[in-house]
C-alpha cells in the first residue's frame, strides 16, 4: 500500500487550509493520504474558542476532503473539530474518506492534551475509549491522534481489534525534549506492536513537524524535517509477516493483574 504523509502548518482559516492541502497533494499517487491533526482549523492561541469553528460530518470540510479522495482515488484521513453536544467544546475528530468519497470511518480523540501546561479539555470534548479500525486495500488501520501516542494500552487495543498499522495525525507541540518524545514514541509503538506507524504532523511556529513512516522493526521508511511537504513510502504485508515471524512478541504476551483500586480511581477521574 502506497502511503503519502502530508506535513503542513494549518491556520485558523479553513478555506486557506484547503488551498494548501490541494497544493501539497497535487499529483500524489498513493492508496492512503494522511493529513495532520486539526488540519481543518488550527488550535490557534490557548484562548481561541473552538466551538464556533466546529463543523458536522456532512459539513463543507468533510465534503472537500471527500472530493480530494475522489480526485486522488485514495483514502484520505484528516483531522477536524466536529460539533458535539457541547456547543463550546467540539470533538477533536479524525475522518477517513474512501476513494469514492464516502465516509469510511471516524475517530474522536480519547486522550486530551492536558499536559506540559496546556489544557485541551478546556476547549474540546474527549471521545469514547473505543478502538477505531478501518480497512484500506486489505490493510487494517488503527486510528490515533497525537497525545494518544503516550498511552501504549491504546495502541495495543487497536492491535487487539485487528490493526496491523497505526495512523497518527498530530499537531505535536514543540518544546524542550518534545521532538525526542515524538520520534521515540512513534518508533516505540511500531516496535512493541510489530506494526507500521504512519505519523503525519503539523509543522510551523508551534509544532515540531518530523512526520514519519516507521516499519514494524522501528526503521524509518521515510521521514520529514521541519518544512511543509509530502513524504511517501510503502506498507508491505510481506515485511510485516516477516518481522512478526522473526519477532513473535505479540504471541508471547501474558495476562497481568491490575489494581482494582487504581482502576476504580481512574474511572472516577473521567
TrEMBL record:
Lineage of the organism: Bacteria, Bacillati, Actinomycetota, Actinomycetes, Jiangellales
Keywords: Hydrolase
Record InterPro entries: C-N_Hydrolase, C-N_Hydrolase_sf, UPF0012_CS
Region (Disordered) location: 248-270
GO MF: hydrolase activity
TM helices/strands, residue ranges: none
Name of the featured protein: Hydrolase
Top-level taxon: Bacteria
Ranges annotated as biased composition (Basic and acidic residues): 261-270
Gene3D superfamilies, sorted: Carbon-nitrogen hydrolase
Family: Belongs to the carbon-nitrogen hydrolase superfamily. NIT1/NIT2 family.
Family annotation (PANTHER family): DEAMINATED GLUTATHIONE AMIDASE, NITRILASE-RELATED
Keyword Cytoplasm (UniProt): no
Residue intervals of the CN hydrolase domain: 1-237
Family matches, as CDD domains: nitrilase_3 (cd07581)
